Amino acid sequence: MKSYRIDKHPILSPPDVEIIDFFWQGRTLTAKKGETISSALFAHGQRIFSYHHKDHAPQGIFCANGQCAQCLVLADGLPVKACMELVRPGMRVEPVDGLPELPRVTASPRPGPVEEIAVPVLIIGGGPAGLSAAIELGKRGIETLLVDDKHRLGGKLVLQTHRFFGSADMVYAGTRGIDIATKLEAELRTFPSVRIWLQSAALAVFSDRRVGILAEGRRYALVRPQALLVTAGAREKSLAFQGNTLPGVYGAGAFQTIVNRDLVRSSEKLFIVGGGNVGLIAGYHALQAGIPVVGLVEALPECSGYKVHRDKLARFGVPIYTSHTILSANGKDSVESVTIARLDEKWKPVPGTERSFACDTVLIAIGLDPVDEFLDKGREFGMATFAAGDAEEIAEASAAIFSGKIKGLEVARALGVDVGEIKAEWYETAEILKSKPGRTDPETYPADESGVFPLLHCVQEIPCDPCATVCKQDLIHIHSSDIRCLPVFEVKEGQKSCTGCEKCVTICPGLAISLVDYRKDPEFPTVTLPYEFQKESLEAGDRVTVLDTEGNALAEVEVVGVRAVKANDRTVLVKLKTPRAVAKKVAGLRVQDGQVTKPLARYVERVADDTIICRCERVTTGEIRDLIRRGYRDINEIKAVTRACMGSCGAKTCTPLIHRLFREEGIAEKDIVDQLKRPLFMEVPLGAFAGCDETEEAGHGR
Fold first, then answer.
1. Strand 219-230 relative to strand 211-215, pairing
2. Kind and range of the H or E run holding 133
3. Percent of all residues in the chain with a pLDDT value above 70, rounded to a whole number
4. CB within 10 Å: which end of the chain, N or C, has fewer?
């Protein structure tokens, strides 16, 4: 059986861990110790996990975050979420086909006391904001409980192989997300006043100001905090289109989890929907993992993410289709192709512009919604409640790190601890880090064609300053205290010129700096580019195609050197002998075969109208539109008639889509009655509420 494990990666190193055996439908498969069932199955090419009881539709991974039940399987006879359950030696895993038949209970569970604890501070979420806040509280010796539903701290930082933007002094700009996670966790664990519960999910905030926690996946605890800090991050938005629930359609976060956390190649060919930073970064991560990216569609006229992220994909050979949308994901049991079309000025697909592309995965990356249900309930019940990171406002992780630091101090001050003055410029920095991309200037090139100097291919105002902090000669400047201003390279009178040290090329988070050296051969200057792919994929003497920032091919040139040194933190420097006429325009080199991006000869039309709004209960767009047109305005009534919003995700995925249908039908938001919120924000075994030790009864934590 073919293995889909990633054995070599330019940034990540596969861990040397124990290999264990488990069974899938009676076949013996292998897994890495500490690996989830979903990643172990993906590593063996298994992408269908179950079949829906309503229409026998195949089900696969969707969120990979424990928020839905698309990846439901039977593990030793019990239904579990494959993305959250770890493989155990000898575990027998089967697909769920219809409604699962639970095993007979041979012994009565033994109820026990439910743990109740009081703490000054409870932090929900161990991502960048939660870690930063906990560090500030730990520095002041404030007793804090930090809970996170994953098996390690860091949140989405542990999925980010790229260097971060922002401020080098304030938020680790120029450092990779995976390394920031390690630094923050290491610092936090030096403070004995901070307790950490991993694999522990917050279930609800109750009116008596206690918070229910499913600790370590099996025991229930009630926590009464004096202050509640919500740093639970964000969840990905979904999208309604034909074939949107086929196995192979899932979120960019799920993709990064499987590829970057678990080092499993989850796709043979990938297509991305959404041109924000999440989708653009996921495309880059796919290329690093050796997964071809067929293309990316964005409904807006321009990608909404950082232009340097967009340019990075374009100059590595990924086509970007702006003012386009997805029409359908096509295939019988899983994705086989995707069909897209151009949008007109009224956001309608233009007939005749349809194109289909062969792929086995469609990544949905159309934006994020804050996980703010704990925040809302805490405030409703009069708790001292704070929020930081994406739970407060969707922004980049660098902003989450800094907002967490500030909120940690605010929480400490609310508890009566003297934290001194929180500087006004900190709040200004926090707002700068949260800001959206600003002005974009046309790219210009210096007239000089002598010596050696860097070319800064970043032309959009974003918060970023590593290049200005690393230049030994002090030749790169941001002429403002606002790090959103564009950096410039300038040599003042009497100042030494660039020495070609290459540090700016290496540290740039957007890989947007090249170095042009005319000293040896002015007609064929040497261009140095950053390269974060396998060093072995290039060697001196190779011929490569170089591209400009927009992805336009400039020339075929010779590789004259490939340099990898430890000080460059896994960024390889590639030196290219380049014709003088194009040298200053060179921003990247093509890393994937252009054939993979070609459309099919004829576009694929998905005949069946199987656009699903409620994935859990398989409720279609047509069913809900019909009720809206018949006068339904109360989502509770729609729920009663169709079962929409009644599934495992707790209506988190389908509610925004139902509201969108109302808007499309011309119904004003004020005329819509939203559904009642669930008392619990995720499923939990009932025995846990009675204090039953399910590990003793079932042999594991379910």
1. antiparallel
2. helix 128-139
3. 98
4. N
The domain in which residue 504 lies consists of 452-593
Largest CA distance in the chain: 87
Same domain membership, residue 479 and residue 377: no
Q: Residue 430: name the closest of 460, 462, 398 by CA.
A: 398
User: Under a CB-based contact definition with an 8 Å cutoff, are residues 23 and 67 in contact?
Assistant: no
Task: Let me know if residue 672 belongs to a domain.
Answer: yes
Distance CA 145, CA 120 (A): 8
pTM: 0.93
Domain check: are 568 and 625 in the same one? no
The angle subtended at Cα 433 by Cα 428 and Cα 434, nearest 5°, is 100
Q: Virtual CA dihedral for 349, 354, 359, 363, nearest 10 degrees? A: -10
- Judge if 569 and 656 occupy the same domain: no
| Residue 259 covered by a domain | no
Q: How far, in Å, CA of 409 to CA of 433, rounded?
A: 18
HSE, side-chain direction, 13 A CA sphere, residue 412: 23
Contacts of 118 (CB under 8 A, 6+ apart): 223, 224, 225, 226
Return the structure tokens found at 98: 């219809």
Check residue 694 and give its pLDDT: 53
Q: Are residues 173 and 86 in the same domain?
A: no
**570 shares a domain with 485:** yes
3-state secondary structure of 446: coil
| 10 and 62 together in one domain | yes
Q: What is the CATH number of the domain that holds 189?
A: 3.50.50.60
Residues 485 and 589 in one domain: yes
Whether residues 9 and 98 fall in one domain: yes
Asked if 653 and 663 count as a contact pair (C-beta separation under 8 A), the reply is no
Query: For residue range 97-136, what is the model confidence (pLDDT) as tens digits?
Result: 887 776 676 677 778 888 999 999 999 999 999 999 999 9
Number of structural domains (the chain) is 4
Phi, psi of 638 (to 5 degrees): -60, -40
Q: Which residues contact 617 (CB under 8 A, 6 or more apart)?
A: 54, 642, 643, 644, 646, 647
